[in-house]
Amino acid sequence: MKNEFYSILFHPKAEEEFLEAVAWYETQFAGLGERFAKQLDTALKRISSQPLLYQQKLGKRREVLLQKFPYLIVFKIKARSKQIHVLAVFHTSRQPSKKARK
């Protein structure tokens, strides 16, 4: 059976959160922002290939914890259009209610 990949779409606020995190990590140590971006890309590839692998939380939302960084990717699956909607790139120390975007 051929593995079908879902396309990834970012909510504008999720994209902003991602870019802010990359910039912050880069100010902490040269190259750390790039490592964060690579970790996020690796997680998005896994999500794209097997989105149902991740447990539903917060209604139809699902979460993936990044390896080595305290961030979650919060997403919804749009099965008919084969899309993943990234709702948040969420630092785990933030208030959990802030990750519930529609």
Order of H and E elements: EHHEEEE
**How much is the radius of gyration in Å?**
14 Å
Q: What is the averaged pLDDT score?
A: 90
CATH superfamily descriptor: RelE-like
CATH class: Alpha Beta
What is the subunit organization of this protein?
Answer: single chain
Walk across the major sheet and give the strand order: 1-5-4-3-2
The percentage of residues in β strands lies in 25-35%
Low-confidence stretches: none
What is the share of helical residues? 25-40%
Count structural domains: 1
| Total strand segments | 5
The rough form would be described as globular
The largest sheet is: 5 strands, mixed
Tally of separate helices = 2
Class by alpha and beta content: alpha+beta
- The CATH topology comes to YaeB-like fold
Q: Could you give a quick summary of the protein structure above?
A:
The protein has 102 residues and is α+β, with helices and mostly antiparallel strands.
Textual characterization of the structure:
This protein is an alpha+beta fold and 102 residues long. It has one domain: 2-Layer Sandwich (YaeB-like fold). It contains 2 helices and 5 strands. It has helices at residues 12-28, 32-49; strands at residues 7-10, 56-57, 61-65, 71-78, 83-91. Strands 1-5-4-3-2 form a 5-stranded mixed sheet. α1 (12-28) runs antiparallel to α2 (32-49). The longest helix is centred in the middle third of the chain and has 18 residues, at 32-49. 24% of the residues are buried. The mean pLDDT is 90.
